[in-house]
Design brief:
The chain has about 500 residues and is α/β, with parallel strands linked by helices. The protein folds into 2 domains: about 1-10 and about 370-499, Glycosyl hydrolase domain, family 39 (Immunoglobulin-like), CATH 2.60.40; about 15-365, Glycosidases (TIM Barrel, Alpha-Beta Barrel), CATH 3.20.20.80. The chain has 13 helices and 21 strands. It has helices at about 30-40, 55-60, 70-85, 125-145, 145-150, 170-195, 210-225, 240-245, 255-270, 305-320, 355-365, 440-445, 455-465, and strands spanning about 1-10, 20, 50, 60, 65-70, 85-90, 110, 115-120, 150-155, 200-205, 230-235, 275-280, 325-330, 370-375, 380-390, 395-400, 415-420, 425-435, 470-475, 480-485, 490-499. Strands 19-18-21-16-15-14-1-17-20 form a 9-stranded mixed β-sheet. Strand 4 and strand 5 form a beta hairpin. Helix 12 (about 440-445) crosses helix 13 (about 455-465). The radius of gyration is 23 Å and the shape is globular. The chain starts with a strand and ends with a strand.
């Protein structure tokens, strides 16, 4: 039995999970990008969008040596996101290629639609400071300080990884030293525009492997007193090569390691109080990788990823850490070779909604108060997040069932849920994601994995992937028991409305 104490609030529940990285940033103005973001906003699947400032396309150096600015594309993207009700998380980066200290063409890398970025540090940090100031002031002038102060910004992206920053550094300590200069100039530029904004760094790529980079950075902050409002990092449960040689399979506990390591380093350096923001997460790295190389990438398409997300959400909620946001990285979605091949996104090439998207929709129906609950020992494979909405008192209970690795064939099980403490009759509405519910991938496999399917076939697959609400009767103070059957790797949301 799982007992949920409907009249006992455990704590206020902050939504740290409903946030995404939309990549590439310059797909926001594309029709497919708008289609994706419109659906995410319509279904309430995310509250915050992380994007790049993309200075490489908006900041140029004139023949007179003066910096020229054209933020028209940036404004078009942000105007659209704001109109949809999103909050923003903006990574200031990358540096324009003309500002690179090392002009080696090998260090200039292509991006989507002809954009490029430089892997070098700036040759002039005063110019970087000016860029950060002008851009920040532009945001404030256009959207208002009150709005922008509710967003978050941070300096650069994955500076601990040679692929993005200081490719020729002797070691990670040298790379960190150069990043500290970048961050200091960033802070000066941002605060010259406003002291009210929320900013931080360093958006680590490989936090546990490169903990010395974070340690060097935090020691620099402590020594100089430079302002830091939060610590940002990336966390991926495992890597392709670790799956291939069976050293580290997909497992929800893998996501815990990065976070705990970052938290330990932060505490060791005297910053254990700062908010932790995982501004990229995923079950595995490499958004462009698909199941043609590693069959396990089918995980990204089926009900297992939905269960992984909900399991991870409940695990992180139990940690005694200042964990404020986690953002799933939706990258590789602009270069899909076909439908449901194992790429890292919410929607397939033909716009089939995946189980992971549906799980985000359900998770964002949770309330703002967490309720106490008690599972019995035999229910160890079920995760529960019971909540209540302050505004109207209705309750939302999110659950998932399965092993931490999500690969074991656990049997379908019936759970007895005791909704103790209810003071009136409630109507129960149920949403289910499992192999046979809200799962486009199962239908896709049944139909022979059709690529470039005709519209009528696409409609069938799309319908199979759509969430559906089912009314399941009522409970009352005299009858508080609700029986719920869950298949392996199922995600269920129960909503209880006063009848």
């Amino acid at each position: 039995m799982i007992r949920i104490c409907c009249d006992k609030k455990e704590k206020d529940l902050k939504n740290f999970w409903g946030h995404i990285v939309f990549h590439p940033t310059n797909a926001i103005e594309d029709d497919w990008g708008k289609q994706y973001l419109d659906k995410i906003a319509e279904d309430g699947a995310a509250k915050t969008i992380r994007i790049y400032s993309m200075f490489e396309e908006s900041v140029t150096l004139g023949d007179d040596g003066e910096i020229k600015y054209d933020f028209s594309l940036n404004d078009k993207r942000i105007d659209y996101l704001v109109s949809k009700g999103y909050d923003l998380f903006i990574a200031y980066g990358f540096i324009p290629t003309w500002l690179a200290a090392d002009k080696d063409p090998e260090l200039i890398k292509p991006r989507y639609k002809g954009a490029t970025f430089a892997r070098s540090y700036p040759y002039d940090y005063a110019k970087w400071e000016e860029i950060c100031y002008v851009y920040t002031k532009h945001l404030i002038d256009r959207y208002g300080e009150d709005v922008v102060s509710k967003w978050r910004i941070h300096c650069y992206n994955e500076p601990d990884w040679y692929h993005f920053f200081h490719d020729k550094a002797a070691d990670n300590h040298a790379r960190a030293a150069e990043y500290c200069k970048l961050y200091d100039a960033f802070v000066k530029g941002v605060t010259a525009a406003s002291e009210k904004l929320c900013f931080g760094g360093p958006a680590l790529a490989e936090s546990p492997k490169n903990f010395e980079f974070l340690e060097d950075f935090l020691n620099h902050i402590k020594k100089t007193g430079t302002r830091l409002d939060f610590i940002s990092f990336h966390s991926y449960g495992t890597f392709p090569e670790l799956i291939e040689d069976k050293r580290k399979p997909i497992d929800s506990r893998g996501a815990m390691f990065d976070t705990m390591t970052v938290a330990k380093v932060a505490k060791m350096c005297g910053f254990g109080h700062l908010p932790l923001i995982c501004d990229e997460w995923g079950a595995i790295t490499e958004g462009y990788l698909d199941k043609s190389r590693i069959p396990e990438m089918a995980f990204r398409e089926n009900e297992q990823y939905a269960a992984y997300f909900v399991r991870m959400l409940t695990l992180f909620d139990e940690l005694n850490l200042p964990y404020e946001q986690m953002m799933i990285c939706l990258s590789g979605q602009h270069d899909l070779k076909g439908d449901l091949l194992g790429n890292r996104n919410f929607f397939s090439k033909s716009f089939y909604p995946k189980p992971i998207f549906n799980a985000y929709v359900l998770a964002n129906k949770l309330g703002d108060e967490k309720l106490y609950y008690y599972p019995e020992l035999e229910d160890e494979y079920v995760s529960v997040m019971p909540s209540r909405h302050k505004a109207d008192g209705h309750m939302s209970i999110l659950m998932c069932y399965g092993d931490d690795g999500f690969a074991l064939p656990r049997p379908t099980k019936e759970f007895e849920i005791d909704l103790s403490g209810i003071d009136r009759e409630y109507k129960i509405v149920k949403y289910v994601i499992d192999k046979n519910h809200a799962n486009c991938y199962t239908k896709f496999l049944e139909l022979g994995e059709p690529q470039d399917a005709p519209e009528d076939v696409q409609a069938i697959i799309r319908e199979a992937g759509t969430l559906k609400a089912e009314e399941c009767g009522t409970v009352s103070p005299d009858n508080t028991i609700f029986n719920l059957e869950m298949a392996n790797n199922a995600v269920v949301l129960l909503e209880l409305f006063p009848a």
